[in-house]
């Protein structure tokens, strides 16, 4: 039995709870997400590289930041305004003997996205890995209930921010470097309660596969991960309690996923282990969706 399976709350589902605003705060969650496994001992797969992770203060981004640090990468974290979570993540990352910088601001602002990349180059001297991960969502019962403002805001944060970060990063990337995108199981199966969010995730898949073709001749790899139901601060901050009660428990593996479940795929896509992969998405969803 794995370390994750030994956590009984994973198979029993999550305790329904609410937070007042998204993307949510880790310290208010019960239980807190699992971000790392003791069994993960770094082997230098990313030694000396610099990784920028959007939404790296908590959730999947935090787990990836810690995992990359264990593999020897220096970390830059872009986040909105969850300063305590960001500081906690920075402290944990730097325990691995690497540096970590924090960059607070709204990624819906194109200028901020470019500013972050400039700051990373200034403070770290280079950029090798960009993990486009930050996202927002709002549950609505019908597409007719989604305002134009909500559609635009969701696309600004989930999709266009990734476009801006990608454009800002490309001039600094070299052969062997990686662009990595977080999409969602919803891009492949749809979600009637998250139509605007799901639409952005589908756009991300198409965008990444297209950019992968453009950058292949430069040796820059473009891949992504498609998570299923993962217990992150975004869930209690956006989902009603009735949706939380069934969150992930209907998957074949019988539990919601944890951020720690995503770490190894992100490490693979950032390392030489994926040297012959580009335009690909790894599905981590407990067997809920099995891709062809």
Automatic annotation (TrEMBL):
<keyword id="KW-0560">Oxidoreductase</keyword>
<protein>
    <submittedName>
        <fullName>SDR family oxidoreductase</fullName>
    </submittedName>
</protein>
<feature type="region of interest" description="Disordered">
    <location>
        <begin position="1"/>
        <end position="31"/>
    </location>
</feature>
<dbReference type="Pfam" id="PF13561">
    <property type="entry name" value="adh_short_C2"/>
</dbReference>
<dbReference type="InterPro" id="IPR002347">
    <property type="entry name" value="SDR_fam"/>
</dbReference>
<dbReference type="InterPro" id="IPR020904">
    <property type="entry name" value="Sc_DH/Rdtase_CS"/>
</dbReference>
<dbReference type="InterPro" id="IPR036291">
    <property type="entry name" value="NAD(P)-bd_dom_sf"/>
</dbReference>
<comment type="similarity">
    <text>Belongs to the short-chain dehydrogenases/reductases (SDR) family.</text>
</comment>
């Amino acid at each position: 039995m794995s370390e994750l399976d030994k956590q009984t709350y994973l198979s029993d589902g999550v305790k329904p709870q609410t937070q007042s605003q998204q993307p949510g705060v880790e310290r208010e969650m019960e239980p807190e997400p699992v971000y790392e496994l003791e069994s993960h001992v770094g082997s230098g797969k990313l030694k000396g590289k610099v990784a920028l992770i959007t939404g790296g203060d908590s959730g999947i981004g935090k787990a990836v930041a810690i995992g990359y640090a264990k593999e020897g990468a220096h970390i830059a974290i872009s986040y909105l305004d969850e300063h305590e979570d960001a500081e906690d993540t920075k402290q944990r990352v730097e325990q691995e003997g690497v540096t970590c910088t924090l960059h607070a601001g709204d990624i819906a602002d194109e200028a901020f996205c470019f500013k972050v990349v400039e700051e990373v180059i200034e403070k770290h001297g280079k950029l090798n890995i960009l993990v486009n991960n930050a996202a927002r969502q709002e549950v609505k019962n019908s597409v007719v209930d989604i305002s134009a403002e909500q559609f635009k805001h969701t696309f600004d944060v989930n999709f266009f921010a990734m476009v801006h970060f990608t454009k800002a990063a490309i001039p600094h990337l070299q052969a062997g470097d990686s662009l990595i995108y977080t999409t969602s199981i919803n891009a492949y199966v749809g979600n009637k309660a998250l139509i605007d969010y799901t639409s952005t995730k589908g756009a991300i898949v198409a965008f990444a596969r297209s950019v992968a073709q453009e950058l292949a001749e430069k040796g820059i790899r473009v891949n992504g991960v498609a998570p299923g139901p993962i217990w992150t601060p975004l869930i209690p901050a956006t989902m009603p309690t009735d949706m939380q009660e069934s969150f992930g428990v209907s998957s074949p593996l019988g539990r919601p996923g944890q951020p720690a479940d995503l770490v190894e795929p992100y490490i693979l896509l950032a390392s030489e282990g994926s040297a012959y992969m580009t335009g690909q998405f790894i599905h981590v969803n407990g067997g809920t969706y099995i891709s062809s």
